[in-house]
């Protein structure tokens, strides 16, 4: 495969699902009640639970849908927003005259970059690229003491035939057209970062706990250092029968699911391919659902490590058991809040949309370079959001889209250093060092913040054509959930206490944002469907 892996294909079909991820940023070490302009009556949620105390929300958001995509930096998707090249034969994007600018790729960064190669535009025919190195240490070296100038040397792809410069590539509104249209009609952040440096599995654990310390491996492994998860490694078969491996890890401590359970707030992680397709000779479930990308690769929909709750004994569904009924989706039963994507739509369309839902795309639609791409990803996101906007629950829903980490793709914005670390794997400010201060609670190997990643808020209550410059981070989703449903905090050094607020991205006094229906293939607007 060459560095851009250009492949002829038939673009005539796609399927999807999709949704969102909220994120917040730096703030005080406590979680005071947020200040909002909304003055309506607080809305009871989760009343299906037998004997449940009525839980009230701080904002009019009764349903949060969190979609966690894969391996894209902000500059890779939004570096030239809102200016697209609009070459013939590609979907066109023309921004509204009052569209705000972002902290993106300036003319100097595009033509005289401090890296070994300048950023370069990728068009729709170049949707499949090699993936760059994005380990805990490699990403720190690419940041190079926050000079952001060693991406070609430190994050270059390892695959045969892959160009070292591919990490500097970026797309514009002619390829990631849907995302740019969502940014036009809803709210986006240009100052949102990973909690820490590192690859997908630590990032996905951070999403639900703000904490990567407390990892217990089955054997010595480079993926766990000083009790902290820094690499990609699966949970054991005892926690996830569709994962496992020669060396595995489980997490200790609390996650957001534990806090939601305590308050009896309905919630679920919905993963494409989670349902077993058959049973092995030993009686174990086999998660065999798979799809092909538009460029011809085939991959399993569900991969070990896709579901972060499976790392925790308290929230795992090791045998991938289905819910006992549609009405119980989101509540406590044998599924233990871990579901297939089909369960999400069954619940949502039958009036049982949980208060908090995490959606995980099938691997071919996660956007991960190497086995996914922006066009397959677009199909997933658009079809999901179109479907959510058609539900009665849309009037009280917030969808946030974000990405787990940068995948080693170039981003020029230096992450704020909010948590230092001094371990053999650190390299941000020198060999064995990430900063000079002591780490939070003494937990090493949590150097952060990590690289900048996109974040969009799509809701009837989101501001319109708005770019937030407020500093936010991956664990911001935790803070929003904790505040909105009055949950308290995770504790033990979780980054939830460091997160600021995404409240400025909302306008709770009214439904400011109209529904936007897009074409899944082109990402361009299509007419709003009328009621039959």
Describe the structure.
With 532 residues, the protein is an alpha/beta fold. It has a single domain (44-97, 125-158, 166-275, 285-422, 441-513), classed as Alkaline Phosphatase, subunit A, CATH 3.40.720. 16% of the residues lie in helices and 14% in strands. It has 10 helices and 24 strands. An 8-stranded mixed sheet has the order 17-12-18-3-19-20-6-21, sandwiched between helices. It starts with 43 loop residues before the first strand and ends in a 6-residue tail after the last strand.
Features of the shown structure:
14% strand; 24 strands; disordered N terminus; 10 helices; 8-stranded mixed beta sheet; Alkaline Phosphatase, subunit A; 16% helix; 532 residues; two-stranded antiparallel ribbon; alpha/beta
Blueprint of the fold:
Layout: E1 44-45, E2 55-56, E3 63-69, H1 74-78, H2 107-111, E4 120-121, H3 136-143, H4 151-154, E5 169-170, H5 177-185, E6 187-189, E7 192-193, H6 200-209, E8 215-217, E9 224-225, E10 228-229, E11 249-251, H7 256-263, E12 267-271, E13 278-279, E14 285-286, E15 290-292, E16 298-300, E17 338-340, H8 341-349, E18 356-360, H9 374-389, E19 397-403, E20 455-458, E21 466-468, E22 472-473, H10 476-484, E23 517-518, E24 525-526
Parallel strand pairs: 3-18, 3-19, 4-5, 6-21, 7-22, 12-17, 12-18
Antiparallel strand pairs: 1-2, 6-20, 8-11, 9-10, 13-14, 15-16, 19-20, 23-24
């Amino acid at each position: 495969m060459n560095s851009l892996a250009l492949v002829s294909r038939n673009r005539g079909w796609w399927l999807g699902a999709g949704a969102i991820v909220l994120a917040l940023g730096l703030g005080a070490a406590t979680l005071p009640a947020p200040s909002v302009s909304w003055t309506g009556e607080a809305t009871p949620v989760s009343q299906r639970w037998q004997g449940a105390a009525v839980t009230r929300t701080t904002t009019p958001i009764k349903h949060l849908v969190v979609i966690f995509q894969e391996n894209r930096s902000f500059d890779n998707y939004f570096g030239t927003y809102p200016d697209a090249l609009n070459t013939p034969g590609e979907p066109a994007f023309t921004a509204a005259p009052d569209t705000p600018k972002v902290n993106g790729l300036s003319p100097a960064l595009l033509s005289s970059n401090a890296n070994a190669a300048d950023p370069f535009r990728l068009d729709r025919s170049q949707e499949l690229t090699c993936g760059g190195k994005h380990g805990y240490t490699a990403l720190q070296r690419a940041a190079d003491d926050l000079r952001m100038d060693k991406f070609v040397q430190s994050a270059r792809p390892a695959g045969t035939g892959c160009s070292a410069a591919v990490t500097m590539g970026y797309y514009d509104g002619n390829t990631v057209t849907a995302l740019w249209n969502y940014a036009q009609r809803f709210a986006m952040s240009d100052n949102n970062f990973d909690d820490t440096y590192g690859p997908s599995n630590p990032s996905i654990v951070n999403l639900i706990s703000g904490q990567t310390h407390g990892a217990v491996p089955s054997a010595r492994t480079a993926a766990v250092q000083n009790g902290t998860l820094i690499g990609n490694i699966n949970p054991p078969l005892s926690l996830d029968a569709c994962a496992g491996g020669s060396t595995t890890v489980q997490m200790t401590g609390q996650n957001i699911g534990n806090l939601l359970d305590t308050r009896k707030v309905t919630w679920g992680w919905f993963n494409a391919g989670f349902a077993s397709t058959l049973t092995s000779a030993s009686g174990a479930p086999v998660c065999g659902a798979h799809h092909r990308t538009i460029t011809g690769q085939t991959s399993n929909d569900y991969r070990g490590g896709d579901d972060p709750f499976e790392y925790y004994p308290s929230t795992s569904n090791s045998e991938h058991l289905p819910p006992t009924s549609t009405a119980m989706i989101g509540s406590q039963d044998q599924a233990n809040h871990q579901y297939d994507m089909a369960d999400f739509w069954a619940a949502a369309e039958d009036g049982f949309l949980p208060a908090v839902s995490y959606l995980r795309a099938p691997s071919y639609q996660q956007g991960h370079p190497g086995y996914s791409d922006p066009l397959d990803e677009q199909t997933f996101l658009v079809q999901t959001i179109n479907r959510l906007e058609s539900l009665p629950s849309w009037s009280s829903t917030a969808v946030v889209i974000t990405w787990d980490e940068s995948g080693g793709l170039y981003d020029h914005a230096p992450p704020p250093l909010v948590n230092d670390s001094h371990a053999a794997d650190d390299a941000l400010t020198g060999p064995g060092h990430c900063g000079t201060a002591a780490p939070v609670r003494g937990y090493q190997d949590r150097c952060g913040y990590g690289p900048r990643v996109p974040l969009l808020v799509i809701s009837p209550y989101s501001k319109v054509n708005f770019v937030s410059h407020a500093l936010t981070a991956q664990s911001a989703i935790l803070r929003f959930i904790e505040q909105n449903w009055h949950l308290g905090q995770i504790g033990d050094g979780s980054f939830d206490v460091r997160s600021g607020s995404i409240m400025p991205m909302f306008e709770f006094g009214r439904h400011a944002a109209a529904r936007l229906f897009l074409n899944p293939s082109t990402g361009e607007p299509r007419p709003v469907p009328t009621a039959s």
